[in-house]
Amino acid sequence: MRDDYQQLVDEITAVLRAPATLENRDFALIAFGAQESDDAEEPALDPVRTRSILQRRSTAAVRAWFEAFGIARAQAPLRIPPDPAAGVFMGRICLPVRHRGVVHGYVWLLDDGHLADLELGGPAGARDPRLVRAMETADRIGALLAAEARAGEELGELLRDALTGPPAGRDAARSGLRAALRGAADGPLALVAVVPWTPGTGEDADHPGLPHLPGIVAACALLGDAAAGAPGVSGAPGAGLAALVRLRAASALDPARATAEQLLRSPRATAGGRGPGRPAPGAAAGVSAPRRGLEDLPAAWQEALAAARAAHADTHLGPVAEWSAIGPYRLLAALPALPPDAAVRPLLEPAHAELARTAETFLDCAGQAGRTAQRLGIHRQTLYYRLSRVRQLTGLDLDAGEDRLLLHMTLKAARLGPPGR
Question: Is the full-model pTM beyond 0.85?
Answer without folding.
Answer: no
